[in-house]
Structures are given as structure tokens and as C-alpha cells.
Amino acid sequence: MLTQNKKIAIVGGGMGGLTLARLLQLHGADVSVYERDLNRNIRVQGSTLDLHEGTGLEAMKRAGLLAEFYKYHRPTASKLRIVDKGLVVKFDDHDDHVSAAENRPEIDRAPLRDILLNSLEERTVIWDSQFVAMEKFGEGWLLSFKNKQDAYADLVIGADGANSKVRPYLSDVKAVYAGITLIEGNIYEAKKMCQIFLN
Q1: Among 34, 20, 24, residue whose Cα is nearest residue 150
Q2: Max CA distance (Å), the chain
Q3: Containing H/E element for 23?
Q4: What is the rounded end-to-end Cα distance, in angstroms, of the chain?
Q5: How far apart, in whole angstroms, are the C-alpha atoms of residue 166 and residue 14?
Q6: What's the Rg (C-alpha) of the chain?
């Protein structure tokens, strides 16, 4: 196995990095996650995530965390209503008994992150570890962090997002903007507020 007797560093403690750490630990790997956040409670997590059958849900299943996931998922979060500029409803699945929620259920990031963090061995996540640079060192890599001691790893995995600081050390591939944007909006007290808008 590639990971046997190897020290693995995952840079980035988001959902991807934490899920990978859990899966690796289930196979006996020696893994550390280096996360720039000061601690697990320092930053409010973002919006909900929908986990698809063949990817996110499959990862949770393999990680042995599917039952825990379903304790905190949001079964109605994937309900969709599409209106045109005159607020005429063009699509509405609020009354459907079968919805996207069954194929790609959603969960808020904070509980998902807690599920993943709680599943890891103690001291897996090295908090307050902002990645600065890395260089070849013997058969592996020496990683440097802001205000932290350097760390050695045989295998380094960049899980630090689209603007990854690790990627340039491992690949010539550069991130590009695809030009696709998703805008989600909420109208609180919709019945009342829409009446004001339409009058």
C-alpha cells in the first residue's frame, strides 16, 4: 500500500481534507491535517452542502459516518422553486414527495465539520498552521508554517481550496475561473414582502 510506513500531511482542514484524513486513518495511515484556523470554533462555517450519491454520500458511507450524517442533514433544504422576473412560478417541487433531497441530501457545514473532526484520532488536526512553503527533503517534503515549527511528510496532499498554495509545488496545473456563478436568495416573510413589492 502506498501509505504504509509513510507520514502523510494534508494541508487544509475543510470538508475534503477532513474526510480524506478519516478514510486514511481507517486504513491505518499516519496522517496529520494542517489547518490555518486557530481552533475548531474560531470561524463560522459557510452555507449548506449537498452530498451526491456517488461522491459525498459514498465518502460518508466508506468513512462509517452515514448514520451520523443523517442525524444532522436538512431533508427539505433541496426543495426548489423557480420564478421568472414577474414572480410567476415556473417550477416548484415543494409538494413532491420525491425530491433531490433523497439523491443529494444537504447538511450545514458546521455540523458536517463537527462529525468529521469528532471521527478523527486525537491531535490529528494541527490548528493554527498556516502553510507558507515546502521543499524537497530526502525522500519527502519539509513543510513550513507561519509561526509554527517545520514538519516532515513523505506524502503531501493539498486540500486547501481553489487558490491552493500547495498546488504549485506538486503540479503545473493552474486554477482557472470557469465563468459559472450560482446566486441563491431568500425572501423572509415572502407572502408579506412580495405583496409590498408587487403593489
Answers
A1: 34
A2: 72
A3: helix 15-26
A4: 67
A5: 15
A6: 21
Instruction: Report H helices in 27-135.
Output: 56-62, 66-72, 100-103, 109-119
Q: Which residues, at least 6 apart from 3, have a Cβ–Cβ distance to it below 8 Å? A: 24, 27, 29, 155
Rounded Cα–Cα distance for residues 103 and 107 (Å) = 13
Instruction: State how far Cα 22 lies from the chain centre.
Output: 13
Q: Among 127, 112, 145, which Cα is nearest to 39's? A: 127
Q: Report helix, strand or coil for 162.
A: coil
Nearest of 10, 91, 98, 15 to residue 49 by alpha carbon? 15
pTM, 2 dp? 0.78
Tens of pLDDT along the chain (199 residues) come to: 577 889 999 999 999 999 999 999 999 999 999 999 999 988 877 778 888 788 889 999 999 999 999 998 887 666 677 888 888 888 877 666 554 445 678 888 999 999 999 999 999 999 999 999 999 999 999 999 998 899 999 999 999 998 899 999 988 988 887 887 777 677 777 777 666 555 4
